[in-house]
Hints:
Layout: E1 18-22, H1 25-28, H2 39-44, H3 62-76, E2 80-84, H4 87-90, H5 99-114, E3 118-124, H6 130-133, H7 142-158, E4 164-169, H8 171-179, H9 191-215, E5 220-227, E6 230-232, H10 237-260, H11 282-286, E7 292-297, E8 301-305, E9 311-314, H12 330-343, E10 349-353, H13 370-388, E11 393-399, E12 418-421, E13 426-429, H14 431-441
Parallel strand pairs: 1-2, 1-11, 2-3, 3-4, 4-5, 5-7, 6-8, 7-10, 10-11
Antiparallel strand pairs: 8-9, 12-13
Helix pairs in contact: 3-5, 7-9, 8-9, 12-13, 13-14
Amino acid sequence: MQEINLPSNSMMLSKDFLFGVATSSFQIEGDRKGRLDCIWDTFCEKKNAITDATNGDIACNHIDLWKQDVELIDSLGVDAYRLSISWPRVMKQDGSVNEVGMRFYVNLVNEVIKRGMKVFVTLYHWDLPQHLEDNGGWLNRNTAYAFEKYAEAVANALGEKVHSYATLNEPFCSAYLGYEAGIHAPGKTGMANGRKAAHHLLLAHGLALKVLNRVCPKSQNGIVLNFSNCHTKSDSPEDIHAAKLADDYQNQWYLKPIIEGKYPDIIDKLAPDVKPDIAEGDMAIICQPIDYLGINYYTRTVYQSDGNGWFEIVPPATTELTAMGWEITPDAFTELLVDLHQRYDLPPIYITENGAAMDDELIDGEVLDDGRTAYFHTHLNAVNEAIEKGVDIRGYFAWSLMDNFEWALGYSKRFGIVYVDYATQKRTPKQSALAYSKLVKSRINGYISGIK
């Protein structure tokens, strides 16, 4: 069986490094009747929007099976659980708190803590209440202020027992995939929409961060961004320029305002009607110190010039791909982490998502997913290499705890280290879960080969 190993002197084996697993609300909870509709409920009803024409009405039924799921997480031996709060579950349309919905998360968080694990809470993992989308969603500046009120309600309910809060998960995906490319909810298109949504998301981050720092100053408060290396197809000046544009547009557009208080220079290349409206004081709100940066990483992306001064993606040339069609590029992971460390004055980093979708099969009660286990092995070692090169990384979360609703791909892709039979809701740990658990449990009281 494929194993996950780290060098015996790795700082990742010390008691201070956190290992965890992660999920998100819409992808696992189900119980649509127990909350307001969100943009994904509406998007799932659109013809051809979801590959397998499914939805999140039931998903993994975590809303009923949460105690069983927390017990499962605990059995893995991990230090932390990263979850997200469903905005439409805890807030009513009039802006008041849905006490039943909020109590679900209070109980969930308490159970995780009772079992000795730390809780990482994400406030927004894409499930925007539909009634806010009806008024423009992230194209409407008022959504950022609604998010501020929601953040305060959650902070007041959960408080400082939460180890770490993240305001947003992957605002790039919300803005670009949802409002510019149209392949995620709410399915809108246009570059101007994407840039406007991105700015309002970042504004929402800043407003919520102020609330979190005021209400929960002892918690670690930050944001989770996704990154993909922007590699160039060739050494031609045109392709090099294209890769630089792609990096600015998709990666640095979200990090630079938070760390340095300004958008990358690419903003000056955009047509006036595409640039977001930036009100006085916005950048100061966005650019507040964060206690940590969450980084989600899956693969690199190769770009070339489109011949018109812009960039386009080059399909992977290798056959070593995940079920998503993504290259397996652990060396690029190290490169990315080191590059960000050298480019910015960053706070401590947590790897908040990393994992792979594979073509899993449940045979005789087992899922032999050696490919996923190998992915974890190489990428955990990539993190270790980045730490050795001076990057301050404090923890790693495997994505995902269990198979779930994979957005526009429905249930056709499985990212979990735990297999879910959606017909019976039975959970079966895959070989990757056993290997990950073995690694985590090998750290005896934080002492491995003399490492403390």
